[in-house]
Amino acid sequence: MEYNTSELCNLYADSIDVLEPMLSNYGGISSFGGSVVTIKCFEANGLISETVEQNGEGKVLVIDGGGSTRRALIDVYIAETAAKNGWQGIVCYGSVRDVDALEDIEIGIQAMVSIPVGADDSNVGEDDVAVNFAGVTILPDDFIYADNTGIILSQEALDID
Known about the structure:
alpha/beta, ten-stranded mixed β-sheet, two-stranded antiparallel ribbon, 12 strands, globular
């Protein structure tokens, strides 16, 4: 489904939060949205790999990677697995790699920067927790909507029809 964050801001100005503009689009889909699933980890993506193996229909994975630009949390394997399992998108306060390949995968990916160095594959981290970055606190089961203009957050699903 296509989302227009500018229009959603016009319609729901009093009931949404807007993430500070610090992330860019890296995926094959530029507009995505859904119910939030959270992970907090730092330079380790084992928990991310496990999570994207689950059914992601209607969900967006939000990762607080501590803003690290030293190791990429998202790579082509994670993105392909997430797309295969129906995830709508990934919002990552951290880095990605395999940028050219990510553009060809049918999933939305917003992240800080790219770097060729991959993350450790250990399962260090927490899931289903509140995460805080880009000036907002994001809770599991919030709703997040993204496009090339920005990312917005809501406690309720937004009616876009």
